[in-house]
Each structure stands twice: as C-alpha cells, then as structure tokens.
Amino acid sequence: xxxxxxxxxxxxxxxxxxxxxxxxxxxxxxxxxxxxxxxxxxxxxxxxxxxxxxxxxxxxxxxxxxxxxxxxxxxxxxxxxxxxxxxxxxxxxxxxxxxxxxxxxxxxxxxxxxxxxxxxxxxxxxxx
Length: 128
Hints:
The chain is of the alpha/beta class and about 130 residues long. The chain has three helices and eight strands; from the N terminus they run E-H-E-E-E-H-E-H-E-E-E.
C-alpha cells in the first residue's frame, strides 16, 4: 500500500494553482473542469509519477471552521520535505511568502511554517 493522493482545502483554486506551482515549485499534474470546481492536482517535479496533492475547494460547510481552527492554533495542514529549510525559507521569503514560524531546529529535524495564501499553514521540513 502506498499514498497516491492527498489534499489540502483551498479557498480559491486559481490562486492555489499559482501559489503551489509558481511559488512553491510543484508541477501541475491534472486540471479537469468539474462543474464550478476543478480536479486540480500538483506533484513534485522530482517525482512526476509520485504522490499527487489535490487542491480541493473549501466548499463543504465543515471545512471553514476546521481550517480556521488549525490556523488559529498554528497547526499546518500539510508538511513538505525540502533539502534545506533555511535556503527554501530565504527563497520563498524573497518571493513575498509570509511565514508564521521561521526555521526552527529540533534535534535532527528543522521546520518552518508558511501561509499558502489560500487559508492554510504549510510546514516545510528536513531531517528525521
């Protein structure tokens, strides 16, 4: 068994597509219209056939209270591995990305947390 697809709920799929591809550097895998929404997935360019991240619309009534509670408590909705947290932090901050947690070393693990502009906190990490 392996993870094929996971998702984050986004407030605006177009804005999310821009942020996750043009800013974070993921590659668009699928973009299929489904009525008012889209089946919109991205993948790591290093693993084009790897796990897909669905940029899922936040339309369900339970989603907004859930997302709001996570953000208020500083809990990331997803975590992405990077080779160098400090370098990625510097690159993303230069692009205007807002971080809620600067790089933090905890033993062998380094993390930072950013705002994805679509209602989520996202952790980047290395180590462990």
